Amino acid sequence: VFPGNCWAFKGHQGQVVIKLPAQVYLTAITLQHISKDASPSGTIISAPKDIAVFVSLLGTSGGVDADREEETLLGVFTYNVEKNPTQTFALKNMLLPRAFSHVKLLVKSNWGNPWYTCIYQVKVHGKMENQKASTQGQD
Question: Where is the signal peptide (predicted)?
Fold first, then answer.
């Protein structure tokens, strides 16, 4: 993780839909930004602040309206710039006990940068659908 080597989007709001390599029972999501010490300006106001995570059925029906399928909110979180640059947030997938192939990350605000917001790394945690039966009862 190097300053400036990030996914940057204009303004303080943005979203991305991540296609996973398999159907996954989601458990958590990790976000990473650079630390204040690594920042050339000594600030990290471009870090995301308020974040929502959704699962989506995008692409599963294959039809023209595939991108209009309903999304389900799995959590709303605040990335705290005073904590570790890598932060993991537990998702509430038990409300929807099925595997998904798409995750939508919605950044609602950042820590004050009016021009852009940066995300350095996103990790999605969970169990692949085909592994669930063999690992049932284990975490």
Answer: none
| pLDDT tens per residue, range 90-125 | 998 665 678 889 999 999 999 999 999 999 999 999
Alpha-helical regions (H) of 50-105 = none
Q: Where are the alpha helices (DSSP H) in 85-128?
A: none
CB atoms within 10 A of CB 120: 20
% pLDDT > 70, the chain = 81
- For residue 54 the two structure tokens come to 């959704």
Judge contact between 20 and 102, C-beta under 8 A.
yes
Distance CA 76, CA 98 (A): 20
- Beta strand pairing status for 86-90 and 50-56? unpaired
Distance, in Å, from the CA atom of 69 to the CA atom of 78, rounded to the nearest integer, reads 26
Domains of the chain in start order, with CATH, are: 7-61+69-128 (2.60.120.260)
